[in-house]
Specification:
Blueprint: H1 2-13, E1 34-52, E2 55-68, E3 76-85, E4 91-98, E5 104-111, E6 119-127, E7 135-147, E8 152-165
Antiparallel strand pairs: 1-2, 1-8, 2-3, 3-4, 4-5, 5-6, 6-7, 7-8
Length: 169
């Protein structure tokens, strides 16, 4: 049960962005890529379902502050994610980051059942407002993941690094 929640949380944290590799690449500025780095602290409820053999599947809905060390993305955003962890080897989800103007960056999340110290990758699939047509990718590492007695999980992702570029909306 804890393993499933942690796995979902790790996938979620990977909130949101672009490419298969999950990490920014050197020389991206010439191609119109903008890199970013930061952290994500998130908290939210989880629901579990026993699946046999001591495993549980879990769904989690997390939200919290995404703080980016870049002027291109406005510094702080609200990050929200919903993810599913099958309790064995599959974790997938969707995330949206919302800036102070209400503009969004959307992403898909993928990973393996994760615990503290594990990585998540995200693919940016688009956006709204100033982020319309954006693409990219990112990865992050969960620094810690914890749960309380009320099935609320919380965690902090560090080493959030990625890249994005604006395309045609």
């Amino acid at each position: 049960m804890i393993r499933a929640a942690i796995g979902v949380l790790a996938v979620l944290s990977a909130p949101a962005l672009l490419g298969a590799g999950g990490a920014p690449q050197a020389g991206t500025a010439a191609a119109g890529w903008r890199t970013f780095a930061g952290t994500w602290s998130a908290r939210g409820p989880r629901q579990t379902l026993p699946t046999g053999a001591g495993h549980s599947a879990a769904i989690v809905h997390l939200s919290g502050a995404v703080v980016l060390a870049t002027k291109d993305l406005g510094g702080g955003m609200l990050g929200e994610a919903i993810a599913f962890d099958d309790g064995q080897n599959l974790s997938v989800g969707r995330a949206v980051w919302t800036d102070a103007r209400g503009d969004h960056i959307f992403s898909e999340l993928k990973g393996e059942p994760v615990a503290t110290g594990r990585r998540v990758v995200g693919t940016i699939t688009g956006g709204s407002g100033q982020y319309a047509g954006v693409t990219g990718d990112y990865s992050l590492t969960w620094q810690y993941v914890a749960q309380d007695l009320d099935d609320v999980v919380q965690g902090r992702a560090v080493d959030l690094r990625g890249r994005l570029r604006k395309g045609t909306p």
